[in-house]
């Protein structure tokens, strides 16, 4: 049964009991008992009647009972149904709006500095961990160079036409020599000028297939490895994370799961998927618990929204990670407002 069908199955009394359980959980993180609900419901209902309603909701998969004698908590399905169909979204509070606006108020020349401030502000405002995925550098490339750092490490240096320089360490294919690296660099530089990294990647794929015989096999592997590094996966310099302490302050029972979450972040595994999550549609997306494969072991929720450039192309994302009992009604509009503001500011920049 889908969420809409489940919601339609609930009568007014069941809806109110369910809503009160979820809202109490989001506020306190504690199970809710029938006697507590008798004091908050709009109509006078006995504790026994409420227990029967809660049992029905549990049978439908919307509530869980952590212990036999304890109250009820919303399940992941229940939280999802509440967020999608019953949640009331608050407007962004003036103090929160002012704090976000202030981070973007100064005309910093460095996009990274600006987005670092945005991430810090989001973490402070929401009391969660904030994520900001920076846009890729889209300026044309002027020069590329590969430098060997050892048998299993190499450096790729990209100089862009606007003067921006990026260095990144990567693992080259086995058997590379200084000669093959120079050959690969020369090969790239003959066609790199005037092209962005994405354009160069497309062009290189065609050229390698056409000119494979003209290029040493090892050098071809290096070209593929180096470009894949920049275009498809090594995004560790693009992700800004703030507020780890906000999550580590949670109860001791959650600490192992939270450490796992941040181990994932610090190793930057699957971070390319972070942006992919947002590209399935505009606006804020909410991932609860195991719905988000990136953070599925953390028992946390992710609220994330893309931001766009002047061409309405998704180039990055902002998000907040917190416990599944996030105040979604407050966090969702904050993330949405921040993403829209970042997009407007970056669209007005030259680079």
TrEMBL record:
Q: Does the keyword RNA-binding apply?
A: no
Name of the molecule in the record = Heat-inducible transcription repressor HrcA
Locate the Heat-inducible transcription repressor HrcA C-terminal domain: which residues? 114-332
MF term (GO), any: DNA binding
Record's superkingdom?
Bacteria
- Gene that produces this protein: hrcA
Q: Which SUPFAM superfamilies match?
A: GAF domain-like, Winged helix' DNA-binding domain
| Function in brief | Negative regulator of class I heat shock genes (grpE-dnaK-dnaJ and groELS operons). Prevents heat-shock induction of these operons.
Annotated organism of origin: Paracoccus caeni
Q: Which Pfam families match?
A: HrcA
Keyword Cell wall biogenesis/degradation listed:
no
What family is reported? Belongs to the HrcA family.
Biological processes, Gene Ontology terms: negative regulation of DNA-templated transcription
The UniProt keywords, alphabetically, are: Repressor, Stress response, Transcription, Transcription regulation
Q: Which NCBIfam families match?
A: hrcA
